[in-house]
Amino acid sequence: MNVAKLAVAALAAASLGLLAPLAQAQVAGAQTIGVSVEQASLIVNGWSAKQSLLGKPVYNDQGEKVGVLHDIIVAPNDAVSFAIVAAHQFLGVSQHDVAVPITQIDIANGKLVWAGATRAAVKAIPAFQYAKVHATPIARSEYLHH
């Protein structure tokens, strides 16, 4: 009887071993959920907007503070498109937000740098109004350019 139990256990282990290579990522409908190994690498090498960027001062290339990064706007096509910079604050409350193409802001020596910006030039940019931004993201299928 011991031999029979051992044979069944060996058969079960062998069949499970054969099925293991067939395992795939979890699927909800037809779309794989979670991240791939390549995407995980991008995540590890990226930075958290909340921890690394939001609320941080923005300097010009002369080292002068020109504002504070308050928000990042993500376009419906998944692109991080614009940074919202508070050009003037009083007691931590933004008095004048401006929208800046994200490509104009870089990181140098661990600081956010907006090359060529001056406080006067930033204050002269028309104020950004959140009322024009969708409060709820739209579905990708409803985005005309996707």
TrEMBL record:
The keyword Signal applies. Keywords: Signal. It holds the Pfam family PRC. It comes from the Bacteria. InterPro entries: PRC-brl_dom, PRC_barrel-like_sf. The keyword Signal applies. Residues 1-25 form the signal peptide. Residues 52-112 form the PRC-barrel domain. This is PRC-barrel domain protein. It comes from Paraburkholderia unamae. The lineage of its organism: Bacteria, Pseudomonadati, Pseudomonadota, Betaproteobacteria, Burkholderiales.
